[in-house]
C-alpha cells in the first residue's frame, strides 16, 4: 500500500501506477493460493440464471437468446481486462479474425475455465466462409445440466456463446455466436468415420460454438489481406 | 394413521395409477431367480428414491436377470415404506427415560453456565456451551433378509434413499454416500429439475450406472 500514497507536491491526475507497473487490474480479486471459485456455487447460480431466463419464454430460441444476452456484457468487459493483462508488446487488440479467435481460444478460455478450448475450426463449406467453430468437449457451465427431452435443441452454453459474442463485438468484429450440442443427436454419418463416432462416445456434452461474422468483417478481412 | 396419510400424499403424484392401495404385495421387492443365481454375487441390486411425501421419484435396478415389479407396485412399495419408516421413527421403548435424562442434563448445564457468567461478571448472556438438541429419531435404517439387504438413508430434508444390495456387500455406507453426492450434484444442480417430482436426468443416470458398475465389477 505504501506506493499507493500520493507523493506530496507531485499530484498527478488520473490513475497512479505502482513502481513495478502492476496495477490492481493485474491481480485476481481472489488472492488465495489457488485463485479458484467453488464450482458448486457457480452451478447453483447458473441454475438460477437458467431458471430466471426460462420464465415466460415462447420458444427454445427465446431462452437461448436470453442466456446469450446475459453473457454479452461479460464478454465486452473481459476483452478489456484480458488485453490489459497481456504483456505490453501484445497489448493491441486483435486485428484479424485468426488472432481474435486465438485470443478467445487461449486467453478467454483459460481465464474463464482454467484451460484452453479443445478445438478451433473453419467451416469446411466453401459457401460459408464467414463461419468458424470453437469446440469445447465438456463445457463447464453444462457440467451438471441434463436437458429434458422436449427441449433437446437447447444448449445452456448459449451463455458462453454470449460471452464470445461480447468479445467479438467489443473488438469490432461483429458476429452472431450460437452454441450447438454435437454429442449425441447427430446420427454418425459414414463420411465422418470412426474418429467422429468415438468422440461422441467419449464426450456426450461436446459443444460447438458457431461464430458467424457479419459480411462487412469478411470484406475488411479480404481488403487487409490484399494490402 | 400415518400409513394412510402417506398413501394419500403419494397418490397426488400418481392419482390415476393407484385406485385401490392394496398393501398385500410381496415383501420382496426384487426376487432373484433362485435356480441359477444362488452362487452369483450381485453387489448393488437396486436404488429407490422416495420424496418427503412418500412418492417414488426414482427407481432403477442394476444387473440382468432380476424379476421386475410393475410400476404400480413400485409406487405402493414406496408409500408403504414411507409409512413404516414414519412408524419406526416414533417407536422407542426408552423414550420417557431418555427425555427425562436429557432435560436433567439441560438443567444442569443451564445452572452451571448461569453461575459461571455471574462469576465472570461479563453479563453477556450465557457463557457456557450452546444447549444441544437430542438427535432426531432416524427410524428404520437397515433391513436384512436371506436374499437381500435394504439400507435406508434419510436426508435432512426427508428424502429417502433405499439401496438394495446382496447380504454380503460391504461398505454400503460409502456407496450410499456417493449416490447421495451424485444426486446432490446431478439432480439438485440441474435447472430443469422440479423439486419432489420424478427424477429424469440423463447425466444422473449415466454417472450412477458407471459408479454402480464399478463397485459391482470390483468384487
Automatic annotation (TrEMBL), chain A:
Its localization reads:
Endoplasmic reticulum; Golgi apparatus, cis-Golgi network
- Per the record, the major location class is endoplasmic reticulum
Q: Which UniProt keywords apply?
A: Endoplasmic reticulum, ER-Golgi transport, Golgi apparatus, Transport
This protein's source sits in the domain of life called Eukaryota
Region ranges (Disordered): 1-23
Among CDD domains, the record links this protein to:
TRAPPC5_Trs31
Q: Name the protein family.
A: Belongs to the TRAPP small subunits family. BET3 subfamily.
PANTHER family with a match to the protein in the record: 41-2 PROTEIN ANTIGEN-RELATED (PTHR20902), TRAFFICKING PROTEIN PARTICLE COMPLEX SUBUNIT 5 (PTHR20902:SF0)
Instruction: Describe the protein's quaternary organization and the partners it interacts with.
Output: Part of the multisubunit TRAPP (transport protein particle) complex.
Q: What does this protein do?
A: Plays a key role in the late stages of endoplasmic reticulum to Golgi traffic.
The name this protein carries in UniProt is: Trafficking protein particle complex subunit
User: What is the native source organism of this protein?
Assistant: Apiospora saccharicola
UniProtKB/TrEMBL annotation, chain B:
Tell me which InterPro entries the record gives.
Longin-like_dom_sf, TRAPPC
Q: For the region Disordered, give the residue spans.
A: 111-140
Q: Record's Pfam families?
A: Sybindin
Kindly list the places in or outside the cell where this protein is found, as annotated in its UniProt entry: Endoplasmic reticulum; Golgi apparatus, cis-Golgi network; Golgi apparatus
Q: Which UniProt keywords apply?
A: Endoplasmic reticulum, ER-Golgi transport, Golgi apparatus, Transport
Coiled-coil annotated residue ranges, if any: none
Compositional bias per record (Gly residues), positions renumbered to this chain: 118-128
Q: Which SUPFAM superfamilies match?
A: SNARE-like
Taking the first listed entry, what is the main subcellular location of this protein, grouped into a coarse class?
endoplasmic reticulum
Domain of life according to the entry: Eukaryota
Q: Which family does it belong to?
A: Belongs to the TRAPP small subunits family. TRAPPC4 subfamily.
Q: Which PANTHER family match?
A: TRAFFICKING PROTEIN PARTICLE COMPLEX SUBUNIT (PTHR23249), TRAFFICKING PROTEIN PARTICLE COMPLEX SUBUNIT 4 (PTHR23249:SF15)
Subunit notes for this chain? Part of the multisubunit transport protein particle (TRAPP) complex.
Which named protein is this?
A: Trafficking protein particle complex subunit
